[in-house]
Design goal:
Elements lengths: L6 E6 L3 H13 L4 E6 L2 H11 L3 E4 L8 H11 L4 E6 L4 H9 L4 E4 L3 H41 L4 E5 L2 E5 L1 H7 L21 H12 L7 E7 L5 E13 L2 E10 L5 H7 L10 H16 L5 E8 L2 H8 L4 H13 L7 E4 L5 E5 L7 H13 L3 E3 L2 E3 L3 E8 L6 H17 L5 E4 L4 H22 L2 E10 L7 E10 L2 E3 L1 H10 L3 H16 L8 E5 L10 H11 L7 E6 H6 L1 H13 L3 E7 L5 H4 L7 E4 L11 H17 L2 E4 L5 H10 L3 E2 L8 E2 L2 H4 L2
Parallel strand pairs: 1-2, 1-3, 3-4, 4-5, 16-17, 19-21, 21-22, 22-23, 23-24, 24-25, 25-26
Antiparallel strand pairs: 6-7, 6-10, 8-9, 9-10, 11-13, 11-16, 12-13, 14-15, 18-19, 18-26, 18-27, 19-20
Length: 685
């Protein structure tokens, strides 16, 4: 799960390195983390106050902060904070103990996927609990309002549990001749039914007690407290009262119903189709059935293309005639179980029922053809028009009327934006299929690019602020796709999943060295990104050295860079690789530096020459003095260690001035230099 929001995590941990490793595991899995660490009770209490964590990851083996104490401190805050035990290994006794001590879950430090899954699950659960609390508050407010509306309603309404009245409004009491609810509280619903209908009503109550659904309406003879009887209609609905399931019953005096009038009330006067109110009622029924497992329904929204232009041709007065003619064409394609209605001035809704989902696009295309192949006679004009159709399959996953309408509207607008006379159908279950298909597409594109040199290189100049070395640039990889240049965020994750990053890295390194070998580039320095997977390539260093020799390039001109979070999780191979890089004369840079709890401790293991400060510090820098202070501290420590600092993503002149004052050595960003494509002549072999 990719989190859009930052997850605030407090680590109860003795070892800074262990906490850093867990942070890197989470960040590498796409979880944005704002961390803090505490190793004793005072630090933990301060961090609880300052960070306000969502999760606490506690090491049960911590010396000065036991899991029981952590759980107690969390409890005293009164906040909903999930406690996760973070362990090196696990056995049955440990599992029992950590849960007894108050942990919600146990995560294993050496199992990154399991750790990320636990954090994902607990964040989802926390988000759900917060949502439930908000909904409970809203529910209480709604119940209060409903109770007020119930008392003011002119409809006689009562709530009945197991045949007994538990609530009735003033109109209900007046209908049956009671002054207050206390008079009816001891009566059963059967006491209000006249003798002739008593036996039938007893049978109904027995069926209801067995869990059968009540009928929507029931006609009978009701009896008032004074013995006067009258013809009535009872309308049933499932409800809850004070948390208990019950029946909502509306009593109405029976009046002769006019079927024609009812039919008219459900129809749109202009088109003769169902009106908006009735269509929405039908949609609510369909959604309820989908929530119960029904899987053969769909909703379509239909609009004529260029309706404004059509209105200009036929005149405003003929608008309803046009919609009536268009609606007739649509109905001619639909089946007996389908329903069509007018949802807006120029929008039809079509509710498809008893249709397999695979048949929905076929029906939508049939609607398109029925309209496109017809001539509509509107007044003195004959029109050939087209429509666009946007729809969504309806199932248990998206059984929500408002959300369903939104998905249909989005699909309709997408079809219209592509020129109209098109169908767009949203399938809520197709996401997994689409992801797999997209993955196959990008994989094929990557393999073709590697085989036929379809990658593209850009370079972005890095500007020195404090008189550093000469011309310094970073190489940026792109892909020459069928519709233009593609950014790496689209294809590199696929390359990582399928183990192609070492081949991609070699391609970039080979091109970088060849560029540096050109006479016009003597003295230039190129920074090249490297993936973690390349650390596992034992032949890379030897290949790199021979390629440098082949093109007569000094290793000093090549700077390999990797993110701090990636290096932390592969510390041993990264340290050995950097040592090898230094032996052949190349240099090394750490990206996203400063994102961990103690980034400088990493330098005792990995000898980086350049520190590229975490880009998050640059966002709106003039308005964040705490970020300016952090950058200044990084630069001071880096200078003391003889390291060069680079600030990425610098986008305004005010930030440049502040970074200079902080002691930053280099800046990089679109404000200074836009990335430029390496000319084809330069990359030609």
């Amino acid at each position: 799960m990719k989190h859009d929001n930052v997850v605030k995590i407090l680590f109860a941990e003795d070892s800074l390195e262990d906490a850093e490793q867990a942070i890197s595991v989470l960040r590498n899995g796409g979880i944005a983390v704002r961390p803090a660490r505490a190793s004793n009770e005072a630090e933990f209490e301060a961090a609880l106050e300052s960070l306000g964590p969502d999760l606490v990851l506690a090491n049960p083996a911590a010396r000065d902060l036991s899991l029981v104490e952590v759980a107690r401190l969390i409890e005293t805050t009164g906040r909903d904070i999930a406690l996760i035990a973070l362990c090196d290994s696990s056995d049955e006794e440990l599992v029992v103990k950590v849960f007894a001590d108050g942990a919600r879950a146990l995560a294993l430090r050496q199992r990154p996927e399991q750790l990320r899954a636990i954090v994902d699950r607990e964040m989802e659960a926390l988000t759900m609990r917060r949502s439930v609390r908000r909904l409970q508050t809203a529910l209480r407010e709604s119940e209060r309002r409903c109770d007020s509306l119930l008392d003011s309603s002119r409809d006689p309404i009562a709530y009945v549990h197991e045949g007994m009245h538990v609530r009735a409004n003033r109109a209900y009491l007046e209908m049956f001749g009671f002054e207050e609810f206390g008079e009816i509280e001891g009566l059963t619903l059967l006491d209000l039914v006249a003798g002739d209908d008593t036996e039938d009503f007893k049978a109904l109550l027995k069926r209801l007690s067995r869990g059968e659904k009540p009928p929507p309406r029931l006609e009978l003879k009701a009896m008032r407290a004074d013995g006067v009887t009258f013809d009535a209609t009872m309308e049933f609905a499932q409800a809850t009262f004070e948390g208990e399931p019950c029946l909502q019953i509306v009593f109405r005096r029976q009046m002769a119903a006019d079927p024609t009038l009812i039919e008219q009330l459900q129809r749109d006067a202009a088109t003769g189709l169902f009106n908006r109110g009735h269509m929405l009622a039908l949609l609510d029924d369909a959604v309820a059935q989908a929530a119960g497992g029904r899987n053969d329904q769909a909703l379509l929204l239909v609009e004529p293309d260029n309706f404004r232009g059509i209105s200009d041709q036929i005149g405003i007065g003929n608008g309803d005639a046009f919609m009536r003619a268009l609606g007739a064409r649509l109905v001619g394609v639909l089946g007996e179980h389908d329903a069509a209605g007018r949802l807006g001035d120029c929008t039809f809704g079509v509710l498809l029922r008893s249709r397999p989902h695979e048949a929905v696009p076929v029906l939508a295309q049939a609607l398109l053809r029925a309209v496109a192949e017809s001539i509509l006679d509107i007044g003195a004009r004959s029109l050939a028009v087209t429509i666009s159709v946007g729809g969504s399959l309806l199932g248990e996953r998206n059984a929500n009327a408002a959300g369903l309408l939104d998905r249909c509207s989005e699909a309709l607008r997408a079809a219209q934006s592509e020129g109209g006379n098109r169908v767009g159908i949203h399938d809520p279950a197709a996401r997994e299929k689409a992801e797999a298909e997209k993955d196959r597409y990008w994989l094929a594109l990557l393999k073709e690019a590697l085989a036929n040199d379809r990658f593209v290189l850009y370079h972005q100049q890095i500007t020195g602020l404090t008189g550093g070395e000469g011309e310094l640039s970073e190489l940026l990889l792109r892909l020459d796709g069928p519709k233009g240049v593609i950014l790496p965020s689209y294809f590199l994750p696929v390359a990582e999943r399928h183990g192609l990053m070492p081949a991609v890295d070699r391609w970039v390194l080979r091109e970088a060295i060849r560029l540096l070998g050109e006479p016009m580039r003597q003295g230039q320095v190129l920074m090249v990104k490297l993936s973690v997977q390349s650390l596992e390539d034992p032949a890379l260093l030897g290949w790199l050295q021979s390629t440098l020799v082949e093109h007569e390039v000094r290793g000093h001109q090549l700077v390999l860079e990797m993110p701090e979070s990636k290096v932390v999780t592969s510390l041993k191979p990264a340290r050995e690789f950097v040592q090898g890089v230094k032996q052949i004369g190349c240099r090394f840079a750490l990206e996203q530096f400063g994102s961990g709890l103690n980034s400088f401790q990493l330098l005792s293991h990995v000898d980086a020459d350049f520190l590229k400060i975490d880009r998050n510090y640059m966002a709106d820098l003039p308005r964040h003095p705490e970020n300016q202070q952090r950058i200044r501290a990084i630069c001071q420590q880096a200078a003391a260690l003889g390291k060069q600092t680079v600030a990425e993503w610098v986008e305004d002149v005010a930030s440049v001035s502040l970074l200079y004052g902080c002691g930053v050595g280099y800046i990089q960003g679109h404000f200074q230099h836009e990335p430029e494509r390496v000319l084809l002549a330069e990359t030609a072999r």
